[in-house]
Amino acid sequence: MAIVSILLVLGAVFTLYVVYQQRRAAKLPPGPRRLPIIGNLHQAPTGAVWLKFQRWVEQYGPLVSLDFGGTSVILVGNYDIARDLLDKRASIYSSRPRSVFAGELATKNKHILFKPYNEEYLKHQRLEAPVMSPRASACYTPVQDLESKQMLKNFLSSDDYSAQFERFTASIQYTLAFGFRIVTGEEWQLKANHKVLENAVAAIEQGRWIVDALPFLNYLPACLAPWKNTGEEWYKLWDDLHMANMQGALDFDGWNWTKAMLHSKEAQQLTKEEIAWDVGVLCDGGVETTNMTLRIFTFACITCPEWIPKAQQELDAVVGNGRLPDFEDLENLPYLQAVVEENFRWRHIVPLGIPHATTQDDYYKGYLIPKGSTIIPLFLTMRGDTQLYDSPSEFRPERWIGKTGPNTFGYGRRVCPGRFIARNSVAIAFARLLWAFNIRSKDEEPPVMEESRFTTGFVSSPKQFEASFEPRSEKHRRVIEESFESAEKDTTKILNQIRDRQLSAGLEPMVH
Ligand code: HEM
After folding, report:
1. Are 421 and 286 contacting, i.e. CB atoms less than 8 angstroms apart?
2. Of 188, 396, 440, 463, which is least packed with CB atoms within 10 Å of its CB?
């Protein structure tokens, strides 16, 4: 009798639960039909995930809801909705989805990208803010100036754009973060960084770690959960590199982010290791992102070169051929600025943006967005919107003359802190590369712009292709050589010049 009663109660509770779930599901945005318990897990795409997500947006509209094994996932396929939710309601849309492997095991909650939005996260954001502000970032141009001059000079003897772009972006980030340059690209720190970044991309890869889909599996002992040892191993590599870089930064003369952050008021609430991670992540955050943006630019030069003569005519008219374009020239180069905007639109390095998560239930246009939902802004879908862009696969800077382009650096309270530095690095690199070289395909049949030319994964950029960088004239070659020859290369002097620029801009660069 007692057993029958218990079964009846359990049955009633289960029925109520199913009815509750169905009622809630009825309020969600539309989406593909879900199965009990697993939801849409069986339909979870792999590879170029964004293509399947885009098809769902075409089928169900710009707001799509999915259920991945009990986690509500909301796809956002249009700029207006992304702004409405992620910017205008940022106070409840700025957390991150739980990531067991990458966030908890491989980085032990020390990587800012994976941190949930709470008081603990804000301590780290406040620590970074002074070195990332627009005014502080404007003081870093001497580093971008030197590194772009070396990049041009290196292109005179080698077309290996992968190596040149990586050295350029890494040297900017390492100089600012730790006070030393990446001169050859063979430095051990950069080699160690390769391994760490390779692991980082694998750690975030969707569908790779079963524990991310089924977090309860993390309660298993390590002998039954092999990912735990992998996580521990990757964490150690990462931690050792950050700690070694911090020590290096303290040993170098001159100002750098590590010293500035360690001496700040906010640092008193954090451990040295946490600060080493914060600086390390800021450094890493700018290397691959900027590097991939330059690869995309080069791919645009060889797949749709029609716009290049206009950009070069503008540079010739404003700068002439007797000197390199400078930061001061940028405001007089509207076409070049439009090239930067179009590059960010044409192909974004994170096709699915970086997911946010909600911290409370919300309603939007009558639809329920449940607390704990993963919100995915479909960057590529938005950039390919044919309602907004005529022939979106074509590279047409004209779309942006006198206008700013689409949101490149994310949303709300998680917007990319490196956006001011990144824009300056990209703009000066584009201006100088276009001024200096004719960038052409080395293949008889130049590649065409199509999806299969891009890598899949959390970040995406053009797969390897051949390009030549030929100086536009002998005069251009000489200017490139002389500009690098006469550039200040002493890192300590450059960094102290940056500290002084910050002081005269009324900032406190925080170092004794
Ligand atoms: C062209 C270059 C870059 C692009 C396209 C880019 C793009 C992004 C995007 C889309 C996000 C996610 C924002 C969101 O969640 O809504 C992000 C976050 C981030 N970026 Fe960048 N970024 C670039 C360069 C940089 C640079 C130069 C740095 C450092 C100096 C940096 C550091 C970071 C960090 C630390 C985060 C995590 C923010 C957080 O979760 O609180 N990025 N970036």
Report:
1. yes
2. 188
User: What does the pLDDT look like over 156-173, one tens digit per residue?
Assistant: 999 999 999 999 999 999
Cα radius of gyration rounded to whole Å, the chain? 25
349, 86 contact by CB (below 8 A): no
Cβ burial of 340 (10 Å; 0-12, 13-18, 19+) is buried
Q: How many CA atoms lie within 13 A of 500 on its CB side?
A: 8
Which tens digit of pLDDT belongs to each residue from 363-378? 999 999 999 999 999 9
Q: Which atom of ligand 1 is nearest to the CA of 132?
A: 30
- What does the alpha-carbon distance between residue 282 and residue 172 come to, in Å, rounded to a whole number? 12
Nearest alpha-carbon partner for 48 in 462, 454, 464: 454
Q: Please tell me the distance from the alpha carbon of residue 264 to that of residue 275, in angstroms, as a whole number.
A: 11
Strand duo 467-471 + 437-441: pairing? antiparallel
**Do 420 and 144 touch, CB atoms closer than 8 A?**
no
Q: Taking the CA of residue 45 as centre, how many other CA atoms within 13 Å lie in the half-sphere pointing to its CB?
A: 16
Positive or negative, the CA dihedral 220, 226, 229, 230 is negative
339 band by pLDDT with thresholds 50, 70 and 90: very high
CATH 3.40.50.300 for domain 1-505: no
Q: Report residues whose beta carbon is within 6 angstroms of any ligand 1 atom.
A: 112-113, 281-282, 285-286, 289-290, 293, 349-350, 353-354, 408-411, 414-418, 421-422, 426
Binding residues: 416
First and final CA of the chain: distance in angstroms? 79
In the chain, % helix, strand, coil (3-state, to 5) comes to 60, 10, 35
Q: Going by CA atoms, what residue is nearest to atom 7 of ligand 1?
A: 409
Residues 6+ apart with CB under 8 A from 71: 97, 372, 373, 374
Which atom of ligand 1 lies closest to the CA of 114? 40
Mean pLDDT (the chain, rounded): 94
Q: What's the pTM?
A: 0.94
Which residues make up each annotated binding site for heme? 416
Cα 356 to middle of ligand 1, angstroms: 13
